[in-house]
Structures are given as structure tokens and as C-alpha cells.
Design a protein that fits this description.
Helices cover about 65% and strands about 5% of the residues. The protein has about 190 residues and is mainly α.
Amino acid sequence: SGEPLQNCGKFESVGSHTDRLLKMTNTFINRAEVQEYLKASKSFCDFMESTLEIDSVEFLKKVRVLLLTLYKKGLAFPLYDGDSNEDTDDLLGETYFTVLKLIALKVGKMDFYNHIYDPTKLDDKSPVGGLLSDDLGDIYRDIKRALLQLETNSEAAKEDALWSLHFLFRSHYGEHIINGLYAIHFFLQYE
């Protein structure tokens, strides 16, 4: 009568719960398809951050290959069923705006394009304007934030990063990858 709850065997301690999540996260990160996607993500971000002087045509040729790889690897990125929702809005700070300026300079005049927002809605044929620099910037922001979270010691941040990479690929930056590829195809059509 009156045994403490921790001796009931029904509850796990906070420490063992954290250890179990850490093991689950590390196991997930070490999966081949996750490693391949993280490698493609890092290559994309590194190229966007590069201050290498390159003309717009060569820049877009390289970006096209990076986006194709990112999309292919993103399709194989599995759902991570973590339980975190970290607030990471300030993780990039001014870096994002610096990289966005670099992207705009490298894209140059090959920035603005028209497309149909949702081509599956046949009654909506109105073109909308897009900016390739915005597409690349949004892809960079979503991926870079997750990569930075994975470098932290916070288990919650890592869980959020893994969940975000899957979710945002399907709901946000995957669309920017497709739109960017669409625009680049036409910008480079005769190059």
C-alpha cells in the first residue's frame, strides 16, 4: 500500500525517454537515404553561400543539377515521426538575407518567369509571376535551418529538423524546386 509511482513499472523516467529518442533520432539520421539527402542539401546550401564569381548561365546549369538531385533524394526521404515543434525562426539571422542577395546577383536577368500556380486546376489558367531568386532563397532557408538544427546538441531541434525536412519538402520547398527547374529549363533552352 502506498508504493511510489516510479516502482509501478508503467512509467519511464525523463532520462530514459530522452535516451530512447536520441537513439531513435541517431538511427534515423544514419539511414542511407537520409544521409544522401543531407549530403545533397549541404551541397545545395554550400553552393548558394558561395561567393564564387560565376556568370548567370553557368550558375543556372549548376543549380539545375543540384535541384534535380535534391528533388530525387527528397522523394526518398522518409517521414520522421518525432514529437517536437522547436521555434527556429531566428536560427539563420542575417545569413539568409546575405545569401538571398548573392543568389539574386548570380541569377541576374534570368529571374522573373510566369507559370500557372496549380496546373491541376484546369479552370484557373491565369499565369502568376515567379522569381527564381525567391524559389532558390526559400529552398535554401528551409533546408539550411534544418541543417543548422541538426548541428545543435538539442534533441528537440534535431527531431524538428528531421520532421521539417520531410514535411516542408512536400508542402513548400518541393514546389519551389519544381518551379525553379521549370524556369531554368526555359532560361537555358538555347544555351
